């Protein structure tokens, strides 16, 4: 008597493509184009007027931003689900966008609401265009960049300085021709303040040598000088909250007005593998008349000086070789750089496994 083996080998899950792409991304590609399943700042709010549409590239994907009839910001992949023509070349119809190519109308959720060329066709009523969760806060538009179609947005929460009423802030936005991870390396490297920014209005003080340590927190870590405080760019905190960001303080003299140290909240979002959008909120803890003095001084004097400091960073980061972080000899000052690289490398490997169906 023979028996038949009815057991079956479990099927391996099929690879999945990341939202907004047409293929599975590797760990190397995620490192180059940006990690997923987190919130990113996308654009300053003032750059998206009512009734306007704005095309942006983020994480290597083209997206369309528009405000619907209520002023709410919507963010869609910039592809018509019919023939993939850019929706950004179409017409804003209030609560939807009409593709210029064949008139297909897509609303803010990515659902096709009308196909003028063939009313009633199967495309109508289908949510065929990726649509992202969007929040507008702190003078900026933020979006949750999902890894897969099953990814659920994490709760949105602003960094401390941007949600505390006693902190007044200004948003600065720039785009640099450099890789996004070089921005994080730069801000996790306080020692460059004494050299690259040594002739600036706020970082000309302090020693040009120091010892550093990493201090762990329940939300990230501090990278700080052990032998100097309040003289230069002496510490930075990396925070893994709703969105990855850095928090730091730069000392200010009396000539900069009331309010004590100058706080900075920094974030970046990859445009593509070779360009990055950088967001800095410049903050100061001020109230009453001091708040008005600070804001006046910033607009009339300090903003230009801060932009000059940013230009010093840009002048170096834009000329770094693409493989600059693979040909180095790091030392004790680079503990923060090493830590952030390990974190992001581990994240990229974990996300690549999910896309490959291995996790």
What does the model show?
This protein is an alpha+beta fold and 359 residues long. It is 19% helix and 29% strand. The chain folds into two domains: 38-145, 3-layer Sandwich (Rieske Iron-sulfur Protein), CATH 2.102.10.10; 160-345, Naphthalene 1,2-dioxygenase Alpha Subunit, Chain A, domain 1 (Alpha-Beta Complex). The model has no long low-confidence stretch (mean pLDDT 93).
* CATH class placement of the largest domain: Alpha Beta
- Helix proportion range: 10-25%
> What is the radius of gyration?
23 Å
User: How many E-type strands?
Assistant: 17
Distance between the termini: 42 Å
- Mean pLDDT metric: 93
Largest sheet: 7 strands, antiparallel
CATH fold title of the largest domain? Naphthalene 1,2-dioxygenase Alpha Subunit, Chain A, domain 1
| Number of alpha- plus pi-helical segments | 5
Low-confidence parts:
none
Number of self-contained structural domains: 2
* CATH homologous group name of the largest domain: Naphthalene 1,2-dioxygenase Alpha Subunit, Chain A, domain 1
Q: What is the spatial order of strands in the main beta sheet? A: 11-17-16-15-14-13-12
Shape: globular
State the CATH architecture of the largest domain: Alpha-Beta Complex
Question: How large a portion of the residues is in β-strands, by DSSP E?
Answer: 25-35%
- N-to-C SSE string, H for helix and E for strand: HEEEEEEEEEEHEHEEEEEEHH
Structural class: alpha+beta
Biased composition (Low complexity): 1-10
Pfam families: Rieske (PF00355), VanA_C (PF19112)
Protein name: Phenylpropionate dioxygenase-like ring-hydroxylating dioxygenase large terminal subunit
Domain Rieske: 39-143
């Amino acid at each position: 008597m023979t028996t038949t083996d009815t057991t079956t080998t479990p099927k391996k899950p099929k690879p999945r493509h990341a939202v907004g792409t047409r293929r599975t991304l590797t760990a190397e590609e995620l490192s180059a184009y940006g990690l997923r399943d987190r919130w990113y700042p996308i654009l300053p709010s003032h750059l998206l007027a009512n009734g306007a549409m704005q095309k942006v590239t983020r994480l290597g994907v083209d997206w369309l931003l528009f405000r619907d009839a209520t002023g709410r910001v919507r963010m869609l992949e910039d592809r018509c689900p019919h023939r993939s023509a850019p929706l950004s070349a179409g017409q804003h119809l209030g609560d939807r966008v009409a593709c210029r190519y064949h008139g297909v109308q897509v609303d803010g959720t990515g659902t096709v609401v009308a196909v003028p060329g063939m009313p009633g066709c199967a495309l109508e009523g289908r949510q065929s265009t990726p649509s992202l969760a969007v929040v507008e806060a702190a003078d900026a538009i933020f979006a949750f960049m999902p890894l897969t179609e099953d990814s659920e947005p994490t709760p949105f929460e602003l960094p401390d300085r941007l949600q505390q009423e006693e902190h007044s802030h200004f948003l600065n936005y720039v785009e640099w021709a450099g890789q996004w991870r070089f921005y994080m390396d730069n801000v996790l490297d306080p020692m460059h303040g004494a050299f690259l920014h040594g002739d600036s209005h706020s970082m000309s003080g302090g020693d040009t040598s120091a010892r550093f340590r990493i201090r762990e927190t329940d939300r990230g870590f501090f990278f700080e000088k052990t032998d100097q405080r309040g003289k230069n760019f002496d510490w930075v905190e990396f925070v893994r909250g709703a969105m990855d960001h850095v928090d730091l303080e730069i000392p200010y003299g009396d000539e900069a007005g009331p309010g004590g140290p100058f706080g900075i909240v920094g974030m970046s979002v990859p445009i593509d593998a070779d360009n990055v959008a950088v967001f800095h909120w410049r903050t100061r803890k001020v109230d009453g008349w001091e708040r008005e003095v600070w804001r006046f001084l910033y607009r009339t004097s300090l903003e230009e000086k801060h932009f000059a400091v940013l230009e010093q960073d840009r002048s170096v980061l834009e000329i770094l070789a693409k493989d600059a972080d693979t040909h180095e000899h790091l030392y004790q000052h680079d503990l923060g750089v090493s830590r952030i690289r390990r974190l992001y490398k581990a994240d990229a490997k974990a996300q690549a496994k999910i896309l490959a169906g291995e996790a």
